[in-house]
Amino acid sequence: MVHYRFLIAAGDGAWWYTVAGLVDYEPPDVTDFQLLADYVSPSWLPGSVFYQIFPDRFDNGDPATDLRPEEYEYRGRRRPHTYPWGAPPDERHPTSLVFYDGDLPGITRRLDYLQDLGVNALYLNPVFTAYSNHKYDVTDYDHVDPHFGGDQALADLRQALDRRGIRYMLDIVPNHCGYFHPWFQKARQNPSAAETEFFTFTRHPDEYASWLGAWSLPKLNYRSPELRRRIYEGPDSVFRRWPFSADAWRIDVANMLARQGSTQMNVKIARGIRAAIKETNPQAYLIGENFFDASPQLQGDMWDGVMNYMGFAVPLFYWLHGYEARGMGLRQPITSPVAWSTAAVEATWRMRCTAPLRPVRLARCRWPTAEFPMGRVSSSIFLARKPWLKTARSLSPPSSRAHPFGWVINISMGVLLLFWPACGPKQQQNTHFFLSRDWHEFCMDMVRLPALR
Ligand SMILES: [Ca+2]
After folding, report:
1. pTM to 2 decimal places
2. Are residues 5 and 114 in the same domain?
3. Catalytic: which of 56, 137, 252, 304?
């Protein structure tokens, strides 16, 4: 890692130029520009165009595997609800249990559409077996959800993608599992079970550490050697044995991984996961979800990129729609209808994007580096719709009023990511709509923008 800054001798004295801008005093090292040497990103990544898909909402290609509402109950009182494609759900139903029965065969049969758009990579929201529609409550890391078509459907998609030269990224949650994962159920039933040490019980069996206090998402405790073996160390671990070897992995809540109280193993576990993935596929791309400043995770030994919400997506939404902040412990969001100024956005990008620069990206980047953060940062510039962000209505085609988030563009390490209406403030309530011809052509033009490739 090389730190550098510029000293400018001017008529009115000496000035320093750093990430913080131009100052007439000695700035702290933390604002230095940084250069990460000997780091090489996956060669296929630059110029890739990702299309993010929330599988339950994209297309229903196989009604035979549709969910039947009577299939299960969620802790005795919450049942899944299925709806006809595009029908508004009953708001009384738990949003995570609202299903439209989209699946992987639905993606496979739409590849002409995606390829025509200019897409050459897919970002699949979780496909592993789980009870909810979002599948972040995984109950089986080893198999694709049967309602998405099971393992065979992913194998078929993989083969179809290979024929077209399209890559794909899997989304996985090593931070926690679902309440109904057999590991957690064994731990609940037997304090002496091998799996009990995978979790942190404060009072067995009903009080335990979970992700942000959500009962359905018990947090995994990486102090357990056996858990580490099953997730990434062992030859048959999740990250080493996946049969349909992904071209990329997106690690959910990567900044919270293996961190709880006195247990602070984030660096060790992230390095271990990286080793498992890269040893299996040296060209795999690894992106971590990190809400805040991810500089420590972007030193070449952990993630290749991060979601970087606060560095890019959040200020952009503030710029479009005014300020809205939600946080743990805040009963009401803090809001301001006044949008951010361009200068405020630029300043936020500048201060947030202090991750190391990578020469390979700089050489390819055609944006004026003083104006656009991609030239200065190797971390992802990732614009994602999250439920806690305001809606980019001004970007939406008028016809998409039922899908108010419309479309936004994700850029990650020079990768243009198209993020379609599968996720949004009401992500559980919206099914995919295929673009009108005008918007389709507009997006094709966006994909081809040389500045974004
Ligand atoms: Ca289906």
Report:
1. 0.81
2. no
3. 252
CA 70–ligand 1 middle distance (angstroms): 16
Residue-level pLDDT at 295: 75
Say yes or no: 41 and 31 in one domain.
no
Q: Which of 145, 289, 293, 304 is catalytic?
A: 289
Rounded to the nearest angstrom, the distance between the alpha carbon of 154 and the centre of ligand 1 is 13
Residues pairing with 451 in the sheet:
none
pLDDT of residue 91: 77
Residue 91 is among the residues annotated as catalytic for this protein: no
Q: In angstroms, what is the span from residue 134 Cα to ligand 1's centroid?
A: 15
Residues 13 and 88 in one domain: no
- In one letter, which amino acid is 263? T
Domain encompassing residue 12: 1-35
pLDDT at 287: 87
Whether residues 16 and 164 share a domain: the answer is no
pLDDT for 218: 98
- The alpha carbon of 67 and the centre of ligand 1 are apart by a number of angstroms equal to 7
Distance (Å) from CA 218 to ligand 1 centroid: 28
Task: Tell me: do 83 and 20 sit in the same domain.
Answer: no
Q: Is residue 218 in a domain?
A: no
CA 221, 222, 224, 227 dihedral sign is: positive
Ligand 1 centroid distance, CA of 31 (Å): 51
**How confident is the model at residue 5, as a pLDDT?**
92
Active site residue 252: yes
- Alpha-carbon distance 255 to 297, whole Å? 8
* C-alpha span between 131 and 75 (Å, rounded): 11
Instruction: Output the pLDDT for position 449.
Output: 62
In the structure, ligand 1 is a single-atom ion and the residues with CB under 5 Å from it are: 60, 62, 66, 101, 103
Instruction: Decide if 162 is inside a domain.
Output: yes
DSSP H helical ranges for 341-430: 342-352, 359-364
Number of domains in the chain: 2
Over the chain (453 residues), the average pLDDT of each successive run of 10 is 89 90 88 77 78 84 92 79 82 84 94 86 92 94 97 96 95 96 98 98 97 94 98 96 87 95 96 96 89 79 80 70 71 80 73 40 26 28 32 27 31 36 35 58 67 50
Domain identity same for 372 and 446: yes
